[in-house]
Structure formats: structure tokens, C-alpha cells
Design goal:
With about 260 residues, the protein is α+β, with helices and mostly antiparallel strands. The chain has one domain: Gamma Fibrinogen, chain A, domain 1 (Gamma Fibrinogen, Chain A, domain 1). The chain has 5 helices and 16 strands. The protein has helices at about 5-15, 55-60, 110-115, 125-135, 205-210, and strands spanning about 20-30, 40-45, 65-70, 80-85, 90-95, 115, 120-125, 140-145, 150-160, 170, 175, 220-225, 230, 240, 250, 255-260. The strands form 4 sheets. Strands 3, 4, 5, 6, 7, 8, 9, 10, 11 and 16 form a 10-stranded antiparallel beta sheet that branches. It has a two-stranded antiparallel sheet with strand order 1-2. A two-stranded antiparallel sheet has the order 12-14. A hairpin with a 7-residue loop joins strand 4 (about 80-85) and strand 5. The chain is globular and about 75 Å long. InterPro entries: Fibrinogen-like_C, Fibrinogen_a/b/g_C_1, Fibrinogen_a/b/g_C_dom, Fibrinogen_C-term_domain, Fibrinogen_CS. Keywords: Disulfide bond. This is Fibrinogen C domain-containing protein 1-A-like. It comes from Lingula anatina. One of its GO terms (cellular component) is extracellular space.
Length: about 260
């Protein structure tokens, strides 16, 4: 039987480890029976990552950048971009558009796993977004910029997506901000891609029609994974659109979708 005092000492040591630092753990077992002394050991490396960027920020990591996190319900750690400056910091990004360098017109599996460059344009991955938002209650902030350098934001008091068995159904809370509310319409709807039509439109695939991947209804008031058309465009609603901020004929220059625990 394990010594309770020894277990307490181990717990105390682990609690003092710095988040984001890689440590080497060596375990040794010694057996003195039946004859002589036999011992065996195993060595493993592990990173003491926070559950999300908010936890990292509270541990003293105050510079924006790419970090390893380890959500409590995830088997393995993974990388994310942390925004440590906007509105108090601690934001975990799961989407970014900025220069059109990454193709966002992708299939279901790509959106499931994630793609792009964490330091630039990327989608974190629906499985990872689900893991994050199922371990705690999160708020959502959507920052957006037009080609004139004017910024706006939309904030939602709650945000989560369900698992793949529910097609990553979107759940959002109360809106606030100055960009206009273009996500509440999509509340309760599943995710759709060009090869997985889960929208409510009867005669079309919204993902194919509007060249994106989103929680389409029939079809959308926002389309942040649409074509990177950069400014005014003649085609209807197939750009990086947020209807109440520049409309369906204007593709935004920059977008960032980020989450943080409600009780931050």
C-alpha cells in the first residue's frame, strides 16, 4: 500500500512545477526478495502545460504567442496561440484570418483535425475546440478588422460546441459589442463543410454555395471561414463576412475567434 505521507509530498512537489516547462520524470522500483536486490527504472518527459491560455496567463505567461496546453479531458497536450493582451489576456484562439495564405475551403476531416499555422492563419480543429469548451464554461470574443484598419468586436457570454456525434453543434450566449450580433442566428445548428451538408437549406449546400465551413442555417449572417476576398466584392456573401459589420459584399481583412473561461 502506498504511503499517504509520500503521496502528499509528491503532490506538493508537482503543484509547484512551472506551467509550460518540460520536465524529466524518473521512477525506480526496488525489490529485495527473494534473493538480493533487484531494481528497475523508467524515464519519461512531460510538459506541465495549463488547461488553456487563461491558466497560463495566471501562472505568469503574459506574452502572446504559441504555447502547449493540456485540457483536463485530453489524452495529449497540443499547441494553441494565446492572446495575452486583449481585454485582460488569457484568450485561446481557435480561428484566425489575416492574409489569405491558407485555404479555408476544406472538408470535414480537415476542420475536425485543424489546419494552418498557429502563428498565422489557422483553424484549431473542432475536436480540440470541443475538448476545451467541455472542460469549463467559456465566453467567446470575435475580433475583426476591415481594410481601412477599423476594428470591431462581438462578445458572447457563453460558447461551446458539442462533439462530432452531434456534428459540433454551436451553443452561444448573450451578445454584446460593437460589431453587431451575427452569431445568435446560428445558435443550435450543426457544423457544415463542402462534403458534409448539415444545414437547414432544402435545395442547396450552404458550404458549397458560400465557399466556406460554418454553423450554417439556411444560410448565414456570418461566414468567417469564407473566401479571402479582401474588401468589397461583387459575389454575394461568400467572403469573410460579418453582416452587421460591412455587410455581405465585403470581405474582412482580419478575424480572430478566441475563448476564455467565464470566471477568469
Amino acid at each position: 500500500m502506498a504511503d499517504p505521507g509520500h503521496r502528499s509530498n509528491v503532490t506538493s512537489v508537482l503543484a509547484k512545477l512551472t506551467m509550460g516547462v518540460t520536465y524529466t520524470l524518473r521512477l525506480t522500483s526496488t525489490n529485495t526478495k527473494p534473493i538480493g536486490i533487484n531494481s528497475a527504472s523508467v524515464t519519461s518527459n512531460f510538459t506541465n502545460g495549463g488547461r488553456d491560455c487563461a491558466e497560463l496567463y495566471k501562472s505568469g505567461e503574459v506574452r502572446s504567442g504559441v504555447y502547449q496546453i493540456h485540457p483536463g479531458n485530453s489524452a495529449d497536450p497540443f499547441g494553441v496561440y494565446c492572446d495575452m493582451t486583449t481585454d485582460g489576456g488569457g484568450w485561446t484562439l481557435f480561428q484566425k484570418r489575416m492574409d489569405g495564405s491558407v485555404d479555408f475551403y476544406r472538408d470535414w476531416n480537415d476542420y475536425k483535425r485543424g489546419f494552418g499555422n498557429l502563428s498565422g492563419e489557422h483553424w484549431l480543429g473542432n475536436d480540440k475546440i470541443h475538448l476545451l469548451t467541455s472542460q469549463d464554461n467559456y465566453e467567446l470574443r470575435v475580433d475583426m478588422e476591415d481594410t481601412a484598419g477599423i476594428w470591431a468586436y462581438a462578445h458572447y457570454s457563453d460558447f461551446s460546441i458539442l462533439s462530432e456525434t452531434s456534428n459540433y453543434q454551436l451553443m452561444v450566449g448573450t451578445y454584446s459589442g460593437d460589431a453587431g450580433d451575427d452569431l445568435t442566428l446560428h445558435h443550435g445548428y450543426p457544423f457544415s463543410t463542402k462534403d458534409m451538408d448539415n444545414d437547414a437549406a432544402v435545395h442547396e449546400s450552404c458550404a458549397q454555395t458560400f465557399q466556406g465551413a460554418w454553423w450554417y442555417v439556411a444560410c448565414h449572417s456570418s461566414n468567417l471561414n469564407g473566401r479571402y476576398l479582401l474588401g468589397n466584392h461583387a459575389s454575394y456573401a461568400d467572403g469573410v463576412n460579418w453582416y452587421h459589420f460591412r455587410g455581405h459584399y465585403y470581405s474582412l481583412k482580419t478575424t480572430e475567434m478566441k475563448i476564455r473561461p467565464v470566471h477568469y
